[in-house]
Amino acid sequence: MTIQDLAAPRLHTATDRFRPLAGSPPVDWLVINGLTPYPEALEAMETRVGAIAEGTAREAVFLVEHPPLYTAGTGSKEADLLDSRFPVFPAGRGGQYTYHGPGQRVAYVLLDLKRRRQDVRAFVAALEAWIIATLAEFQVTGERREDRVGVWVRRPERSPTPDGSIAEDKIAAIGIRVRRWVTFHGISLNVDPDLDHFSGIVPCGIRGHGVTSLADLGIVVSMPEVDALLRRNFEAVFGETRDS
């Protein structure tokens, strides 16, 4: 990626295909039941990323739910932690403060970009495309924004923003880290979390916009149903998976 590429508008990078080299093994797909403590998930990611980089483990996606907590990315600002009502964990990923909790599907995506495309911006665009395609299965229109990573939903039924534009809420956040060209951390999709729990932070450092969920949009769906659609749309973007 060149300096010119980095300076180009973010939305100029869009991809709905981020597949591995021909002959690559499928991605391990692991759904972890119950609430996973954040330090446990972080340790599992660290271990697996090291093994993927060494060529001794397959790429993987870990699907988890966490107990209520906040994570602080490398760009976090103290002023954006409004109420430390839940434990706060340094995450080591990019981005700022994020909430995780029950009813939110967190997908940790551990992929080897050397087998795919050594382009972090394209990888983030592929994650956004994956989420948008999954939301479309529920007739929800998710959108990307130039100045805001993640996936957003327009809320025309609400009062417009101070500049007169249509109100928007974030339904899915993205925060990643790359080590030795292996990705970790990933996405969080709000299925039916307690949205009040987000009020303890300025989510991702973005003021003036809210957060939403499938349930908040009137879509009642189980986590296994969401997982099935996440998997189907992941395979369309990133390639074959296998149960792990």
TrEMBL record:
Reaction(s) the record says it catalyses: octanoyl-[ACP] + L-lysyl-[protein] = N(6)-octanoyl-L-lysyl-[protein] + holo-[ACP] + H(+)
Keywords, alphabetical: Acyltransferase, Cytoplasm, Transferase
Active site: C204
Leftover remarks: In the reaction, the free carboxyl group of octanoic acid is attached via an amide linkage to the epsilon-amino group of a specific lysine residue of lipoyl domains of lipoate-dependent enzymes.
UniProt cross-references to PROSITE patterns, sorted A to Z: BPL_LPL_CATALYTIC, LIPB
Top-level class of the enzyme under EC nomenclature: transferase
A Pfam family recorded for this sequence: LplA-B_cat
Gene3D superfamilies: Bira Bifunctional Protein, Domain 2
The protein, known as: Octanoyltransferase
Protein family per UniProt: Belongs to the LipB family.
HAMAP family: LipB
The protein's Enzyme Commission number: 2.3.1.181
